[in-house]
Amino acid sequence: MTSSTKLSLILFFACSLFLQGTLGEIICEDLPTDVCAFSIASSGKRCLLENYATRDGKVEYQCSSSEVVVERMAEYIETNKCVSACGVDRNSVGISSDALLEPQFTTKLCWPNCYQNCPNIVDLYYNLAAGEGVFLPDLCQKQKSNPRRAMVELMSSGAAPGPVSSESEVSAMAPAFAPASI
């Protein structure tokens, strides 16, 4: 190895360390509330918008880390284009599978503009649906062919509402349908 090659490698390594340090990490607690929801920290944990009452009785919002780790994504802030295409609200506190019961929401989520281009949001709702005993690709297929039937089947799934206990368990069987360009 020549001395110029060694110098180039050392310079490249030093620049990459510098760049990594200046770009920083995404830490949920440091994010502004208007980009918190649908973001993923550098640790891979999903960010959640939460509210709390101040001493004077006002409601304030803060961004915090959930315990849910997204296996295939980290350091990700969802684009406004995907938020709009999928019909989600960045200002909503918490995330619930209840949205899947709303035909307008499910239509937007299953629409190609969202379903094929917004893997973060699709992965989140895939896991929420799975927690309710519903396979999102099947729900989307039924939504396209018979929206009323899709809602009836979702409501009769028999699953009790509530959070998914371990998204990582559900993620293991997930997104074969998600785009490869994550």
TrEMBL record:
In terms of InterPro entries, this protein maps to: PAR1
Q: Which Pfam families match?
A: PAR1 (PF06521)
Instruction: Give the top-rank taxon of the lineage listed in the UniProt record for this protein.
Output: Eukaryota
Q: What is this protein called?
A: PAR1 protein
- Signal peptide from the UniProt entry: 1-24
Keywords tagged on the record = Signal
Species assigned in the record = Nyssa sinensis
